[in-house]
Prior knowledge:
This protein is an alpha/beta fold. The protein is built from eleven helices and twelve strands. It has a single domain (about 25-185, about 240-410), classed as Alkaline Phosphatase, subunit A, CATH 3.40.720. The chain has helices at about 55, 95-105, 125-135, 175-185, 185-205, 210-235, 240-245, 260-275, 305-310, 315-340, 400-410; strands at about 40-45, 60-65, 80-90, 140-145, 165, 170, 280-285, 345, 350, 355-360, 375-380, 390-400.
Amino acid sequence: MMRTSMMGRRNFLRGAGATLALPFLEAAQPKAAKASAPPTRMAFFYVPNGVAQKAWHPGETGMDFALSPSLKPLEPVREKITLHTNLDRIKVPGTDGHAQASSCYLSSATPDELSPAGYPLKRTIDQVIADEAGKHTAFRSLELSCNSYRDNRESVYFDNISWYGHGHVARSMKDPQKVFRRLFAVDEHKANASVLDVILADAKDLQPKLGRLDRDKLGEYLESVRTVERQIERITKRQDDLAELELLEPGKLWTAMRRDEYVQVMGDLMILALQTDLTRVATLMVAPERWDTPLAFHGVFDKPIRHHGWTHQQHKKEVLRDLEKLDLFHVEQFAQLARKMDAIKEGEGTLLDNVMFTMGSGLSSGSLHECTNLPTVVAGLGGGSFSANQHIKHPKGTPIANLWLSMAKIMGANKDRIGDSTGLLGNWLS
């Protein structure tokens, strides 16, 4: 069993293959929040290229349904998972199916709200929710990716699921060491704060000398600087709490990690950020869409594989079996992270009780680039906002945006509509 080096004497997380429970740490909670109810948080676990359909979908619906072969790893946390089926995203013709799958998966755009690149892409639901949830945390949101490819084969649309708006990507981080420093290196943040003070002082001197348009541009820039400044202030206020965790930076280079180890270490960092309330909104992209460079999965396949290429050869039985093995691997990684959340005591329950942790893909079948009946599993109870241990088969044609709208409501970001949503998922919400 491999261990990450991101450990302290009192709080630690393990890498691939771990089942060890995380202890509850008072130090992990903000001092002001220790006496109050835990906040609700949300995270996404994105899998590219869709799933092998037959092994994914169970034959039963309702409570206590029998898990399908691909979903078997969820058994230890089945009391806190909900499988949603018949949730669709409208595919807009004329653009690449894979790029649209990832970049528009969480989009708040309607199908006719096209970006200049032709995608129905606006601010994504994680960022919409972060507009509200981020008022209370050091980081508005956290965007992570396990894209270990070294060649730049595809555009930004294939490699990111979080967007601030048209043309403004919330670019994900891929290096665990850099993620750790961003979250927990308080001294670095203090140094950055000193630099920001100089920038703000210089800008104040410059502002009266500019024309109106330049003043407006500078004003927008200064607001972004002040946002970073407020972020640093919140982090430094948490310094004592974070110091008690005695965390160590991941020691192993991400480029040398096994696939499962890489996913788990990035997931561990995401969990720590949620547990310590540094953020309440996170996305983890397991791999980019398409990108057909061979990728190694140690312990799963004997040699590096081309996931995307396989999806177009599903008529071959041996290829279909391999795709099902890959789906099982991804569900195992998701389930392992859910178990870690469920082992963290929080108030009267666990972290998982107060999280909506969604595994999904922007394609149902990578073979035909279909966007109907998208694979969607929600682990967690969202602070008691809905029932779990069930398979909800929604009416055909139900927009997945209805799920995003429901999550926004749970997170306190009440919206009348998200994208092509037609209403809340009343058969899910308590």
